[in-house]
Amino acid sequence: LQPQGPAEARAFVNAFLKSSMPKMKDEAIQDILTRKAVVLEHYCKKQKKQKRKKTKGFTAKQRREMRLFEIEPEQQRYAIFLPLHELWKQYIRDLCHGLKPDTQPHMVQSKLLKADLHGAIVTVTKSKCPSYVGITGIILQEFKHVFKIITKEDKLKVVPKLNNVFSLEIDGFVSYIYGSKFQLRASERSARKFKLKGTIDL
């Protein structure tokens, strides 16, 4: 195609407008062509972005009133939660890429500090309150300041983290949890940096 000159382009536009608007007079068409500004009658309105409403969850008081975290007495049986413990052991093995005899203990410890402990079997080895020492069971619930543990005697124990030391064993690896330095929710531990060295007292 060869480029058209100004005269040919003007003739083409006039012919196109006449064929497109046969009822319009030549003067009106020329008036449209000579206008420097054209006001459009129809325009798109800008759509306002709707702000998403944040869904409000239940408050701590409402959760207590609804008893969302309470375990019914008929469900407080050790045997019911043994499959949960088996799942937890597999979860830890996968997390540590297999627990082998040559696995470094500090690597296992660092993984356990950030791992979810629901389903783990723990024992209170040291405590400022002698009545807590020796309690062993499966962790059913972990809160910021306490563990809820089901024992082999089908008793639900609420053990505070403060002033208690817990031992945890899996595949021959024994780790100790110092509750006083562990007062975090399970969801907060994954982003927390722990110091593996240093002296820790009750």
From TrEMBL:
Origin superkingdom: Eukaryota
Keywords: Nucleus, Phosphoprotein, tRNA processing
A GO term, aspect molecular function: ribonuclease P RNA binding
Cellular compartments annotated: Nucleus, Nucleolus
GO cellular component, as recorded: nucleolus; ribonuclease MRP complex; ribonuclease P complex
Presence of the UniProt keyword Disulfide bond in the record: no
PANTHER family, sorted: RIBONUCLEASE P PROTEIN SUBUNIT P29 (PTHR13348:SF0), RIBONUCLEASE P SUBUNIT P29 (PTHR13348)
Subunit structure of this chain's protein: Component of nuclear RNase P and RNase MRP ribonucleoproteins. RNase P consists of a catalytic RNA moiety and 10 different protein chains; POP1, POP4, POP5, POP7, RPP14, RPP21, RPP25, RPP30, RPP38 and RPP40. Within the RNase P complex, POP1, POP7 and RPP25 form the 'finger' subcomplex, POP5, RPP14, RPP40 and homodimeric RPP30 form the 'palm' subcomplex, and RPP21, POP4 and RPP38 form the 'wrist' subcomplex. All subunits of the RNase P complex interact with the catalytic RNA. Several subunits of RNase P are also part of the RNase MRP complex.
Protein name, as recorded: Ribonuclease P protein subunit p29
Species this chain originates from: Pterocles burchelli
Lineage of the organism: Eukaryota, Metazoa, Chordata, Craniata, Vertebrata
